[in-house]
Amino acid sequence: MPPKAKKAATAPPTTTATSEEPKSESTTTPTDTSTTATAADTATGDSTSSAPAKAAVESGKSEERKVAAKSAAKKGAEVEEKDWRLMLGRPGNSVSIGLVGLPNVGKSSLFNLLSGLQVPAENYPFCTIKPSTATVPVPDARYDHLKNTWKPKSQIQAVLTVTDIAGLVKGAAEGKGLGNAFLSNIQAVDAIYHVTRGFLDAEVEHVEGSVDPARDFDIIKSELIAKDLAMMEARVADLEKKVRQNAKDRNNRDNLETARKVLTLLQEGKEIRFGDWKEKDIPYLNTQQLLTAKPVVYLINVSEKAYIEQKSKFFKEVKTWVDAHAPGDAIIPFSVAYEQKLQGMSEAERKAHIESTKAPSRLDRIITAGYKALGLIQFFTTGVDEVRSWTIRKGTKAPGAGGVIHSDFDKGFICAEIYNYDDFKELGSESAVKAAGRCRTQGKEYVMKDGDVVFFKANRK
Fold first, then answer.
1. What angle do CA 386, 392, 394 make, to 5 degrees?
2. What integer pLDDT is reported at residue 62 of this predicted model?
3. Is 331 helix (H, G, I), strand (E, B) or coil?
């Protein structure tokens, strides 16, 4: 139950929440490769001379560098804020990610590992016809610490809904295989785990007859673009008709302009998520459910031996393809065979085996990578009654975050008392945080930070 808001005159209730970015390990090296770029603004300059005659000049240069660094940092912050504001999609507290790929690449087996649910995973194409879904907790050490400290009556962790979507084949956009139904299922999710095969096994049939991750990526990308292209051709034609009928309708004219840009991009073989979109384009794009507008995390399923040794001839091939076609997207190698072995062990056996192989499970990282790809952060509400983690998009302001809990906290927002989880962890309690002056009252323009603990004050509307 969401906390109830009272009238301002009667000390409206509040909800305590924290938001700090979920800790997700970087995916680098062959075992865990990520091409995700992180912006870092640095100022450089000539090293200072030891000659006294140059001291004043160098001091001036130092001050200039400081000013330049501050300016660069401010500009970087502005760019980052703008980037998040212009992200496509509208994920909220309920987030869904679909497992997509060709048949027999390990999607259903990964789904079983993530969820514990047993959907059909036999070795033949199209064994998954109706998509299976499961709710998967998002690992977060901050949430664990808060619940263990407060020991509340109710504990609610942030979750992802993972959907196992049946394998696509070449020609799916034209209805081959069971393609059209599967492509519709992809429309319903917020992001995509693109699973590809990076292991050789004569007993596991590959629908294309050989193992070639780059080719498989090309097939899926082409099918998604083809489906979007067919949809946008129809929508452009419809908007052109509407504009001819009523040229004064500015909304239709603006939508037609955006739709034509989308169509051109698709005709060039490019995905919508890599388009140069303006703020006015986003509302229209978010109503179209375009498949190539969704964020993607690339997962390569390799053999147990390749995963443990961090060596596979497919690693370089996958990274080269992603760098060329989807720069910035995360790549996570994992092994279904290895994960299945770990899952069948006791906790003590699993710990010992990981120490022996030096190869940790990648399941938590896969979950958090999907969360990160959507630009999501968490804030918390805490107390003896409930500790709960809430999901919002990076860049969300305090009233919008409150609205995730209850619409009254958005519409009737007064203020929010906020401190960060890091302060709570350092000082040990909420009372200690307040005594140290680290809990502050924030207004409507406050941009939520990952790990904020929040107490909202609002009028009931």
1. 135
2. 46
3. strand
Is the pTM for the entire model greater than 0.90? no
List 52's β-bridge partners, or say none: none
What number does CATH give the domain 95-372? Answer: 3.40.50.300
Q: In what order do the strands lie in the sheet with 95-100?
A: 132-137, 159-164, 95-100, 191-198, 296-302, 331-334
End-to-end CA distance of the chain: 17
Phi, psi of 452 (to 5 degrees): -70, 140
Say how far apart CA 450 and CA 421 lie, in whole Å: 9
- Element at 452 (helix H, strand E): strand 452-458
pLDDT in tens, 191-249: 999 999 999 887 776 777 789 999 999 999 999 999 999 999 999 999 999 999 998 99
Burial 305-334 (b: 16+ CB within 10 A, else e): ebbbeeebebbebbbebbeebbeebbbbbb
- CATH assignment of 8-17+382-458, given 3.30.565.10, 3.10.20.30, 3.90.650.10, 3.60.21.70? 3.10.20.30
Q: What's the CA gap between 246 and 252, in Å, rounded?
A: 9
What is the mean predicted confidence (pLDDT) over 375-388? 96
- For residue 319, CA distances in Å to 11, 191, 361 come to 56, 20, 21
Secondary structure of residue 353 in the 3-state scheme: helix
* The dihedral sign for the CA sequence 396, 399, 403, 407: negative
Return the structure tokens found at 77. Answer: 């912050």
DSSP string, 357-410: HT----HHHHHHHHHHHTTEEEEEE-SSSEEEEEEEETT-BHHHHHHHH-HHHH
Average pLDDT, the chain: 81
Q: Where are the domains of the chain?
A: 8-17+382-458, 53-85, 95-372
pLDDT in tens, 36-93: 333 333 233 333 333 333 333 334 444 444 444 444 444 333 334 445 456 777 667 7
Q: How far is CA 328 from CA 33, 297, 322, 331, 373, in A?
A: 11, 10, 8, 9, 10
- Give the contacts of 399 (CB within 8 A, at least 6 positions apart): 409, 410, 413, 444
- State the DSSP string of 125-145: TT---SPEEEEEE---HHHHH
Res. 404: pLDDT tops 50: yes
Residue 190 pLDDT > 70, yes or no? yes
User: Two tokens at 204?
Assistant: 């596991």
Rounded to whole angstroms, the Cα distance separating 269 from 225 reads 7
